[in-house]
């Protein structure tokens, strides 16, 4: 049955890529003055119990400039926007990235990104970087140019937020939830304090069993992207054992913070169909698990710099909640508090250390706060974005 599903997911993925070459992805923001620019999903849609990556790449405009050097938000921008420490915080902590398939250029592309922005080298040789298959070995899966873009984005965002962290890349055999989940378990077994998962798929009845098997890891921060298609839920973001990470649009401003943020209209949010409500969630419009919990920049039109050469042309601007999930995982590592946290509960008792995002929406819904940002908790941005590490 699994092989049949894998064959069907290939067909669905090809169809998704073809569709995305013709239309603007639903989650793309309209915040651009350059009509030649558009957004492409780097991974296609998939069959049930398979996941697609959430990375979005900004295309068009001045392609030569994009290829020649980095545009988009850089590490200093992100550290400034979220008031993060830039000293030795995170040293000795390991952040894991879980993705499907292999990026054969992962380490060399990561080296270019870190050198460009003056970050310390993170290599296999110096013990900072490690790449393993889903069982913890070196029998890597087949390469995939779409997921390679996701991997590059994830590695670069962890580097940007926590330059002193070690990075563990775990490559699943496929995008089947069983393989991705096994990779999460491997990441935890190999010592990660935080595990970022920038992927998701439609909810299904068996997810309440799968969330226990793969995502229930007390004392480890598991972050998951909420999605890039606007209002609506996805698993594993709906798991009660993870921190579900939504998305914002982030721009420089002449205010005291130096930045403004609004809810990104592509961020996923909503009320789970199957997962019970965790005790720390107190919102009253959803009697099951609500997403998101927290958020960070995800709008590709206010996106981040990424370097990718396997299926990419070097420097590009990326976005999606694929950016926000590894950002938050790295903030957890900076805080150094994961051994004492209970799943995604910690930010709920430390809201004073978050920027509350009070404007923007990701669609229409019958329970307004689940799709419209406002004071306090809301669906698209959760409790808000990092203001230092105190909420993590």
TrEMBL record:
TM region positions: none
Keyword Disulfide bond: no
Transferase listed as a keyword: no
Domain of life: Bacteria
Key words of the record: Hydrolase, Protease, Serine protease, Signal
Residue stretches making up the Peptidase S53 domain: 72-392
GO biological process: one example: proteolysis
N-terminal signal peptide: 1-30
Gene3D superfamilies: Peptidase S8/S53 domain (3.40.50.200)
GO molecular function: serine-type endopeptidase activity; tripeptidyl-peptidase activity
PANTHER family: PROTEASE S8 TRIPEPTIDYL PEPTIDASE I CLN2, TRIPEPTIDYL-PEPTIDASE 1
Protein name: Peptidase S53 domain-containing protein
Protein species of origin: Thermosporothrix hazakensis
